[in-house]
Amino acid sequence: KHSRDQMIIDAGQKHFGAVICKSCGMIYTAASLEDEAQHIQHHERFLEGLRYVGWKNERVVAEFWDGKIVLILPNDPKYAVKKAEDVREIVDNELGFKQVSLGCPAKTKTYLFVSNEKMIVGCLVAESIKQAFRVLSEPGAVPSPSQDALQHHRAWRCSTEPEPCICGISRIWVFSLKRRKGIARHMVDVVRSTFMYGCCLSTDEIAFSDPTPDGKLFATRYCQT
Ligand code: ACO
Ligand code: ZN
């Protein structure tokens, strides 16, 4: 049932014979039945979870040529909150977060980037926080990007001095095939202008919690630190 639309990954890559699905982004070995089966399962679940149907009174907080950002708040109708939860589950799964609960569900704001094709290609979960610990830079210690979440080096050295903060970004994710197009940047810009009513947060007033290597590279660039 899944699309047979695939691309062969450039030769010279580690996984020879691997293909990447152009719709769900999964990399797998087409020649392996087991991999194929796994792909089909992932494909359906992923695309269904990220399909965006929309609802009456959806809160569109920004519009771009390639999509829009919809904000979901904890007291929104059940179907909206359910969609936010479903997407968060997919994101957590990809980030390798296992049953990480939200600090305070009642204070959580979920921002979804919806493409013109009605697919959710970005998700950002923001929470109110009072303080944060700055990640200290380690010159020369930038880990190489890796596909394997287990290999992710996540133990950044942090300062022991808490700094006042307003908004904690507990998750930020962009669909693998839509990265490096400014979607994460758009989402953080929108959080800064909409998180607190009537004011725009500076980059010092937002904090990325427990960033992955990708997250750290993005945050460093975004905050120009
Ligand atoms: N490597 C180097 N620089 C990067 C990277 C990267 N992987 N990602 C972003 N940047 C920098 C670049 O300077 C980029 O500008 P450029 O493309 O003009 O050079 C700038 O940040 C802006 O990047 P965006 O295009 O806005 O970022 P994108 O939409 O690709 O999303 C994200 C970045 C969310 C980190 C994405 O790579 C992703 O979803 N990764 C997997 C999930 C993940 O690790 N999320 C972070 C978890 S940490 C947390 O949730 C708090
Ligand atoms: Zn697929």
Keywords:
binds acetyl coenzyme *A, binds zinc ion, alpha+beta, globular, 225 residues, single chain, three-stranded antiparallel beta sheet
How would you characterize the overall build of this protein?
With 225 residues, this protein is of the alpha+beta class. 26% of the residues lie in helices and 28% in strands. It is built from 4 helices and 11 strands, in the order E-E-E-H-E-E-H-E-E-E-E-E-H-E-H. It has helices spanning 33-50, 78-95, 183-194, 213-223; strands at residues 6-8, 18-21, 27-29, 59-64, 67-72, 108-115, 120-128, 131-135, 158-164, 167-174, 206-208. The strands form 3 sheets. Strands 4-5-6-7-10-11 form a 6-stranded mixed sheet, with helices on both faces. The chain has a 3-stranded antiparallel sheet with strand order 1-2-3, with helices on one face. Strands 8-9 form a two-stranded antiparallel sheet. The longest helix has 18 residues, at 33-50. The chain is globular, with a radius of gyration of 18 Å. Mean pLDDT is 86; it is low at 140-153. Bound molecules: acetyl coenzyme *A and zinc ion. Residues 2, 21, 23-24, 26, 39, 43 line the site of zinc ion.
